[in-house]
Design brief:
The complex is a heterodimer.
Chain A (H helix, E strand, L loop, with lengths): L1 H10 L2 H40 L2 E7 L6 H5 L24 H10 L3 E16 L2 E10 L1 H7 L6 E4 L3 H4 L3 E5 H7 L6 E6 L4 E10 L4 H4 L2 E5 H7 L8 E6 L5 H12 L1 E5 H4 L1 H39 L1 H9 L4 H35 L4 E3 L3 E3 L7 H28 L2 H7 L2
Parallel strand pairs in A: 3-8, 5-7
Antiparallel strand pairs in A: 1-9, 1-10, 2-3, 2-6, 2-9, 4-7, 5-8, 6-7, 11-12
Chain B lengths: L7 E10 L6 E11 L4 E6 L5 H8 L8 E2 L2 E2 L5 E4 L2 E2 L5 H11 E4 L11 H12 L4 H14 L15 H13 L5 E5 L7 H16 L3 E5 L3 H5 L3 E6 L2 E7 L1 H4 L7
Parallel strand pairs in B: 3-10, 3-11, 8-9, 9-10
Antiparallel strand pairs in B: 1-2, 1-6, 4-5, 6-7, 11-12
Classes of the chains: A alpha+beta, B alpha/beta.
The complex binds adenosine-5'-triphosphate and magnesium ion (MG).
Adenosine-5'-triphosphate binds next to β2 and α1 of chain B.
């Protein structure tokens, strides 16, 4: 009965109602399309990052700073200790006993594989061009188990790394910046004085721009020589059974290994922060649109109330309660919300499919062919529920105002 | 709610209207009982409190219970079908109105987006005793009885003034109310339509419907069985009109 009245009222303001519905539809459509685009982009970045760089990396930084030797002997904190002729010993940063650590990791639940590596920076020179290059020294078989880098090789092959002395696989961006092609020789100079001429045996593209523009892979031994880190591992790269739980595993590993252990989330904190801001922007833009639509709803419902003071009075005189009148107006808001949001879901879906078909190449933080649209049922649900709630809230004031009219006053006033 | 109680009863009813600093005592202790199947007219000068009393009798308004913190003795109270309305909250009073009272006002107050039939059905939809189809059937039937059989599906705003008032009467009768309360139902109608409405009231009264009508039209007031005259917030005369027209019954 309340629905019956609400519907009839709703249809007597077709044009204004249509405008309000359009407002809700547009904001829901925008939200769905924008968040699918943002999610597509972010998901791609995350997947490519964890696949190419591993889920977790153990670094060569000890978790606890070493206490000076004398303090270890004299435990009294008040003791005044004086040490003469201290010779600063050069601390070589490295992961001690990587073999033992790898064996322990192999026993940890949730850890799929681990690979030792050495990492360092060199200057690459080709012709007149130079570039800072981050060298990852790897053991190919083990590396294959923690990252998918072999699958990202565009030219050449990952296997040639093993068969070529001083072979290097560089990112597509690196190759472009230096102007090198497959089988070209690049001069590499390490900061510790090591230098070599490496032969480009492969060019890869992970799709993650910062990686593709800065990284090169060499055999562990070659890299150790170049970086002047003979027999040293300063990184262990780990793959887990669930990259979303990397942070949790990293904390466990850090406790076990005693070295700083970084999850991919930590390593990419800045990007994840930017993603949060992107998400926030999506919410602000679509939220503003929704707010405008809500004001439209508020407006037409107030108009509808003012126009129908007599109706409200007579309905009350025949026994309709305040609740009945409130619901008549809330239902009108709900009709607008439900129609608008439903249309928005449909148009959002269409927009996603349409955007997906646009043939463009994305070059930014990631490289992608076409716009990446990532649909989540939760986005549809969220958009539908939130838009209906907002519209309903907009209907509350007119509804309460309608319910407040005193029929006696209205009926007297008509004379 | 024994059937020995009067159908509507105002006991020492006071009503103060207006703001606190500009209070206006509109009813000054009215006592009035309306029995079942009575046809009562209320007359009196403009501003004497007729409408105010009618709204109170139908539970549309509530009597003033106290002035400056002082209650009255006996308490200013309205009983509808034996029910003390002061014990009901607003929603309960609304339900009581829905079930027991039908109002007709000077203006028809039809919902213009709805058909004549739908307007008549509104009280039945609220009551919920009849299914939608049954209510619609009854609505059409009521309209037919009031000579509107051919305009059942007509939108309310496309009816003439007299037709609209007949729809309003049908609507007031929809839930078979214990009392039909009409406040100047002919006040906005021409002579012909006024007569038609008066005839309708006469007819339904003869079928046993309790009616209270406030009117300025003396001819219509005279057609009731009983005429209550008000002046300045008081009932000053309560006449049994049968005693005038029907010899054999002594003055009450
Ligand atoms: N809100 C109000 N505040 C103060 N006084 C009011 C208010 N509403 C009505 N009154 C006064 O109450 C008195 C009774 O009003 P009521 O409508 O009951 O009179 P009535 O007998 O129906 O008159 P009429 O025949 O003109 O319809 C009037 O004097 C009117 O001025
Ligand atoms: Mg009046």
């Amino acid at each position: 009965m309340r629905w019956f009245i609400a519907f009839r009222y709703f249809f007597s303001h077709k044009r204004q109602s249509a405008v309000c519905i359009a407002g809700v539809t547009i904001s829901v459509t925008m939200f769905i399309a924008m968040s699918a685009m943002m999610d597509g982009f972010q998901d791609k970045f995350v997947i490519e990052t964890v696949e190419s760089s591993g889920h977790i990396t153990i670094k060569d930084e000890p978790r606890e700073t070493r206490t000076p030797i004398l303090e270890r002997v004299y435990k009294q904190p008040e003791a005044l200790l004086e040490v003469h002729r201290v010779k600063p010993r050069e601390q070589v940063r490295k992961i001690d006993n990587p073999g033992g650590l790898l064996a322990s990791l192999a026993r940890m639940p949730g850890i799929v594989a681990a690979a030792p590596a050495v990492q360092g920076n060199v200057i690459a020179t080709f012709g007149t061009k130079t570039l800072n290059l981050s060298i990852n020294g790897i053991e190919p078989e083990r590396q294959l188990r923690v990252t998918t880098i072999a699958g990202d090789v565009l030219e050449g092959s990952f296997d040639r790394l093993r068969t070529t002395a001083d072979g290097i696989i560089v990112g597509k961006g690196v190759a472009d910046l230096l102007g090198v092609k497959l089988d070209d020789s690049v001069l590499l100079a390490g900061s510790e004085g090591g230098r070599t001429t490496a032969r480009v045996v492969g060019i890869f593209r992970t799709g993650v721009t910062p990686v593709d523009y800065s990284r090169g892979y060499m055999l562990l031994n070659d890299a150790q020589t170049l970086l002047n880190k003979k027999n040293i591992n300063n990184e262990i790269v780990i793959r887990t059974d669930d990259y979303t739980r990397a942070q949790e595993y990293a904390t466990q590993i850090e406790g076990m290994a005693g070295y700083r252990t970084e999850s991919w989330q930590e390593a990419n904190e800045n990007f994840l922060k930017i993603f949060k801001i992107q998400d926030l922007m999506t919410y602000i833009i679509t939220g503003t649109l929704l707010l405008v639509a809500a004001f439209g709803v508020l407006n037409i419902l107030i108009m509808s109330v003012l126009e129908r003071v007599n109706d409200i009075a007579i309905l009350k005189s025949m026994g309709y309660s305040r609740t009945d009148i409130t619901l008549v107006y809330l239902f009108q808001g709900l009709v607008i919300g439900l129609i608008g949001a439903t249309l928005g879901l449909g148009f959002g879906k269409l927009a996603i499919e349409g955007l997906r078909r646009i043939p463009i190449t994305v070059e930014g933080l990631i490289h992608a062919e076409g716009l990446l649209m990532s649909e989540h049922a939760s986005q549809y649900v969220k958009a539908f529920i939130v838009s209906n709630i907002i519209v309903l809230i907009a209907a509350v004031y007119p509804a309460r105002r309608a319910a407040k009219y005193d029929p006696v006053e209205v009926i007297r006033g008509a004379h | 709610m024994g059937h020995t109680d009067p159908l509507l009863c105002a006991r020492n009813v006071r009503r103060v209207l207006g703001s606190a600093d500009n209070a206006n005592e509109v009813l000054k202790g009215v006592n009035l009982s309306i029995e079942r199947e009575e046809y009562v007219s209320i007359v009196g000068a403009s501003g004497s409190g007729k409408s105010t009393l009618l709204y109170l009798l139908g539970g549309l308004d509530r009597p003033t219970r106290a002035i400056n913190g002082r209650t009255f003795d006996p308490p200013s109270t309205i009983f509808i079908d034996g029910q003390d309305t002061s014990t009901l909250n607003d929603a309960e009073l609304a339900l009581l109105r829905n079930e027991k009272v039908g109002f007709v006002f000077q203006f028809h107050y039809l919902l213009k987006e709805f058909t004549a039939q739908e307007n008549v059905c509104l009280p039945m939809f609220k009551l919920g005793k009849l299914s939608r189809e049954q209510a619609m059937d009854r609505g059409a039937q009521l309209l037919k009885q009031l000579g509107m059989g051919d305009k059942v599906k007509r939108r309310a705003n496309r009816l003439s003034g007299g037709e609209q008032q007949r729809v309003a009467i049908a609507r007031a009768l929809a839930n078979e109310p214990a009392a039909l309360l009409a406040d100047e139902p002919t006040g906005n109608l021409d002579k012909k339509n006024s007569e038609l409405v008066a005839d309708i009231f006469q007819e339904i009264s003869e079928r046993g419907q309790t009616i209270v009508i406030v009117t300025h039209d003396h001819a219509i007031a005279q057609r009731a069985q009983r005429m209550v005259t008000m002046e300045d917030g008081n009932v000053i005369r309560d006449e049994d009109l049968h005693s005038l027209s029907l010899p054999g019954r002594g003055p009450g």
